[in-house]
Amino acid sequence: MTIRARARVFSFIIRINMAFKVAVLPGDGIGPEVTAEAVRVLKACGGDYDFQEALVGGIAWEKTGTPLPNETLDLCRTADAILMGAVGGPKYDNIQPPSLRPEIGALLALRRELELFANVRPAKTLPPLLNASPLKGDHGLIDLVVVRELTGGIYFGEPRERRENGTVAVDTCIYSRSEIERITERAFSIARARKREIVSVDKANVLETSRLWREVVTEMAGANKDVKVTHMLIDNCAMQLVRDPKQFDVILTENMFGDVLSDEASMITGSLGLLPSASLGNPRNGKPFGLYEPVHGSAPDIAGQGRANPIAAILSGAMMLRYTFNDSVNADRVEAAVEQVLGEGLRTADIFEKGTKLISTVEMGSAIAAKLA
Ligand code: NAD
């Protein structure tokens, strides 16, 4: 081998070693279709990413007997970030035992195994789609983020059981100071990149966990005076989100309240096919680690038909650039490309309206990627 050829091989090895490793988990239903478009768009941004695909969900169960094979978990444990499609579908709903079902055995297991404690869900109306919002006119033009605690509270507390021959049911809501501190810290850093305003949502007039929540958030607000923190009760917040959603920028809340509020906020923007999310854990290799996925599920009713909207997956890729790879330049470019393509009237079936042009999943991904080339 000549010296020049050796140098080329050497620089290739260095490049591969230095590339950021992204685990790509397409999953089931429309998952593979929308994830492929997200990868296409990320590649068009030109960063140095090594995309490595692995099985997850029902398809993984079919091929290996488990929805989260060890090889997949190992890849996720060593990756810088994870880009996921969706898991589940009717044909996997009756798998026994239930712990092998995709949603429990893959999705919840990944959150638990990787300690993904912060769920970040932006809800931003895209101006070309304002008509799709159930709120009238400019009222539905929102840009907010829900920061939801994801691995504590009533969804994980023990005991959870039936008593007295099944006639009494018990769930336990439990939060520790450290769990509240780490999610609040995350909300502060997200708020600092936005308007520096947080509304912390709880039920402190009734629940002990909420009283601790408010106590900790208030203490931390005192030590982070550059961010304005106010408190709101969950029932009032649910109402205010419909009455005047523009008053919110960052909403910080616990697991169950966040589950409900993030769905409510996201519907204001109009369509499920547009909404990205991030589930963030502790930093890895000096960078915030996260799993990025669309909010929607595997949509088995339209899988394989080229009708899925890939925008939620593509915007999840933009979140990955922004949060894990600190690349807000390319994240902004991807978001702008999405708005540009929608502004030109291109639409997948879910957002199609008279006077616009109906295109397929691949055509939408390609059109967005072309804006970045
Ligand atoms: P869903 O989000 O898959 O679909 C709801 C409706 O929205 C369907 O009519 C679907 O066609 C439409 N839709 C969803 N995403 C779309 C997109 N990108 N483009 C166009 N239309 C889209 O919810 P579901 O039907 O309740 O659930 C289907 C399966 O997905 C279930 O097995 C469920 O457990 C699973 N699920 C998985 C996740 C996940 O992997 N994170 C989340 C939610 C649901």
Protein topology:
Blueprint: H1 3-18, E1 20-27, H2 31-45, E2 49-53, H3 58-64, H4 70-78, E3 81-86, H5 102-113, E4 118-124, E5 143-149, E6 157-163, E7 168-172, H6 177-192, E8 197-202, H7 208-223, E9 228-233, H8 234-243, E10 250-253, H9 255-268, E11 276-280, E12 290-294, H10 311-323, H11 328-343, E13 346-347, E14 357-358, H12 361-372
Parallel strand pairs: 1-2, 1-3, 3-12, 5-10, 8-9, 8-10, 13-14
Antiparallel strand pairs: 4-5, 4-11, 6-7, 11-12
Helix pairs in contact: 2-10, 2-12, 6-7, 8-9, 10-11, 11-12
The structure holds nicotinamide-adenine-dinucleotide.
CATH topology of the largest domain: Isopropylmalate Dehydrogenase
The SSE order reads HEHEHHEHEEEEHEHEHEHEEHHEEH
What's the structural domain tally? Answer: 2
| CA(first)-CA(last) distance | 35 Å
Q: What molecules are bound to this protein?
A: nicotinamide-adenine-dinucleotide
Q: What percent strand? A: 15-25%
Q: Say which CATH homologous superfamily of the largest domain is assigned.
A: Isopropylmalate Dehydrogenase
Show unreliable segments: 7-16
How is the largest sheet built, in terms of strand order? 2-1-3-12-11-4-5-10-8-9
Count the beta strands. 14
The average pLDDT score comes to 92
Give the CATH level 1 class of the largest domain.
Alpha Beta
CATH architecture of the largest domain: 3-Layer(aba) Sandwich
Largest sheet: 10 strands, mixed
Instruction: Give the helix proportion (percent range).
Output: 40-55%
Helix/strand-derived category reads: alpha/beta
Gyration radius, in Å:
21 Å
Annotation field: number of helices: 12
The outline comes out as globular
